[in-house]
Write a structure and sequence with these properties.
This protein has about 400 residues and is an alpha+beta fold. The chain contains twelve helices and 13 strands.
Length: about 400
Amino acid sequence: MTHRQCAWLTIALFVPLTVFAHQPSDSYLHLDLRREPIVVQWDIALRDLEYALGLDANQDNAITWGELESQQGAIAAYALGRLAISAADQMCRLGPVALLVDRHSDGAYAVLQFKADCPTRSHLELDYRLFFDLDPSHRGLLRITLATATSTAVLSPERPRLALELEHPRLWAQFLDYWREGIWHIVIGVDHILFLFSLLLPAGLRYDNGQWLESGQLHSALFEVMGVVTAFTVAHSLTLALAVLGWVQLPGRLVESAIAATVLLAALNNLYPVVTSRRWLVAFALGLIHGFGFASVLTDLGLPGNALALALAAFNLGVETGQLVLVMGFLPVVFWLRRFAWRVYSVALPLSSLTVVVIAGLWFVERTFDMPLVSLLGEQMTWLAPRLV
């Protein structure tokens, strides 16, 4: 493979990632089964509703309360048309809907409050279809309040229907839900992945006379990789727990901007090395910021203490599982290139790092100054920009 071919391959692999580094599409559905009829609250991101319904009537890149209120009927019809609750195979009547607005860590949400009037409480089943036809990555995060406990579940295109447990929630099923959700969030968390891979690209190499050189010692490379991955894991696990438990709170925009900055710094260090050894210290220091990014999904769910510990442990384990799988797939390719195609790797390392610098720079500007630069890559991405004023 020539240097030019290597360059085009790297660009082809990395440039599309700019499109996918946006906030995950989640809604928060709470069913209070302690009351009759069932009380329901459904928080849906305005950015998602804008994409589906076009709430920004004057196209000024800001959704006002007037614009939202004028579309209350359309929002209620759209949402309730994609949610069904049944009891013993009989449909529950949903409505009427009150519309409020709340702010989550990742932006403004429409809050739909209504009741589900069911003919009986036996064999309750939920069917959730919101946004699945528009965004397969969307997740519905369900919280069910019972008389003596709280249960949780994650609804997805692969699992849109759920039988509601009314007495004894199955803890193992809840654990698997949030374990899978943790894996999913590391898969779609392109910024987290690029940060880690930027640190791993020069693992085991030595920097001399203005260039990275092959060390030829596989064991040292593996030792450094283990140190970087472990430090990153410990760091983001620590701040994930602190944020979810409510002990440390940071503004969402600050966290997202800081994460972009960590990716930028990690990639720049490959081009203009400042830290050439003990990169695990960098992974730990900057990895602390990434834990706050992972925490938003659990923080916004508002789980009580008895359900929070289980969700936190499962979600974090899922993040680590996804991270381990990605790293294990990444390392053999890297080590093979170093041993059998060093000239290709010597070009790919700076070129990949430069590409990450450009991508992370765009993310940083976009997140810091609320400038929807990603929309320049395609009209289909303009739904990321609207915000509530």
